[in-house]
Amino acid sequence: MRDEDDDRERKRWEDAEEERHYWESIEDEKREEEEKAAQARADAIEAMETWFFEQFEDPQVEMPRDSEEQSFIFPWGGPFEASDVLHGEFSHRFDEATIMAAVEHIERDGPVEWAPTSHGDFYEHPDSEPDEEPEATRVELTGRILDRLDQLEAAIAATPGQPGNIGHNAPPEEIGLPPYGDEEVAEIKAAIAETRTELAEADPDAAVLATQSRRFEQWGKKLGLWLAKKGDLAVDELIKNGIKAITWAGALTLFGDLAHDLFALAKALLAHF
């Protein structure tokens, strides 16, 4: 009888041990899977970080700075955001949480806007024609900019300002005021003069030219939005007041062309460094 009791007790102990080993093996497998997943996630984050810093860098490294607006100028592409480029490059390989973890790693000690490295795939190399000398490009751009500055100065002089300059009547409420008051017109004229002065220098400052490019672009956008908002109603009303609508359209084109050429010249100058 005692032997039978011993056998049953031993059997219970063996069953308990077997069950304990089973659950321990399950826990070990689970822990091993978690460790593998964590390592795979860490490897993925490291791979994305390594790729990112091969392609991008802090703009302080190479980008010129707009002293007026205290912001960087990106003549060779950008600015880029880590989230955008990592999603574009790795969304087919890694999940959202892993990508965003890499973004956090990248941005923890750095900026949120990045410049392309000169050896990376996102770097926009300065355009140059095979048979065209850089100096010729600079001379051509400078001449074209000076010509457009003259045209813009004439266009601004011919365009009306805000009430008091449009006959005896202000435009109706649905037309709104023309986009430039006397103060802003004075700023545009000053920018024209400053740009001419800079272009007369033996070595124009690329950052100054890029800043002026941005200013002309912003004035052009303001005019474009006003014209787009008012549409045919604005044109009809301007004509009623004896104003040539083409003057506004001409100024809009000149703002855009000047912004483009000034930025192109800034890039050409920076390409020599």
From the structure above, extract its key features.
single chain, 273 residues, two-stranded antiparallel sheet
Principal-axes shape call: rod-shaped
Alpha carbon gap, first and last residue: 100 Å
In total, how many beta strands? 4
Q: What proportion strand?
A: under 5%
Gyration radius, to the nearest Å?
33 Å
pLDDT averaged over residues: 77
Return the string of H and E elements.
HEEEHHEHHHH
Helix content: 55-70%
How many DSSP helices? 7
Tell me the structural class.
Answer: mainly alpha
**In which order are the strands of the major sheet placed?**
1-4
Low-confidence stretches: 128-132, 163-176, 239-246
Outline the biggest β-sheet. 2 strands, antiparallel
Please characterize this protein's 3D structure.
With 273 residues, the protein is mostly helical. Helices cover 66% and strands 3% of the residues. It has 7 helices and 4 strands. A two-stranded antiparallel ribbon has the order 1-4. Helix 4 packs antiparallel against helix 7 and helix 5 runs antiparallel to helix 6. The longest helix is centred in the N-terminal third of the chain and has 54 residues. The chain is rod-shaped. The relative contact order is 0.10. About 10% of the residues have low confidence.
